[in-house]
Amino acid sequence: MKGYIIHLPKSQKSLDSALSIKLELESIGIEPHLFNGCDRYDVWQEFIDNEFTIQDITRFGGGYVDSEIATFISHYKLWKKCVDDNESIIIFEHDANIDLTFDINLLNTFDDDLLNLGKPNWGTRIWEGVGIKRREICNEYHNIHSFGEGCQCNRTWLFGAHAYLLTVNGANKLLKSVGEDGILPADLFLRQEVLNIYDLLPHPFSQKEEFSLIQRNAIYKNQKINDWEY
Question: Is the full-model pTM beyond 0.85?
Fold first, then answer.
């Protein structure tokens, strides 16, 4: 199965990190391809050209807004590619990292909308089990945007979009929602309200902690932020 690694080709840090995961993916049998992402310098022209609308502006701002929108656009382009090529793909961000070995054949058997491979890096959710597990849906009322409150169910968003398998059916649902509802930060947009989300447990991928080109504040100890070198 093909995997696409979103990276920023003008950034040496991004390119080096993407090349590192490319080698790791080759070693486990995934066919990796580097994919040029949108950055904060190109984002607003891309935003206008695609005639995007913003679904909820209050959901942006955890990082730099222009970088958050650029990240969304990078994912959006791969959703379109998934549909255009009519095949399931795996989408990686340049800071994905393989933590655990897993049976690669499990990916070929998945035929629903989205299979999350990345360990969530924020939020207060419990992730237990082995194998492919569909996320539970919570019908209790609580503030789902207040991560210190509410239930601990596996629900709503990816909580980090650094590694996931997307099918053509799932991609079509995402593109339909973009047109009808507008955009959100990528990992908030990938949500159960739009498509069926499963997890491969334990999650084989996590997010590297060395640097961030989105965050305004470090979310990991000793993380470098505002680390744009061009």
Answer: yes
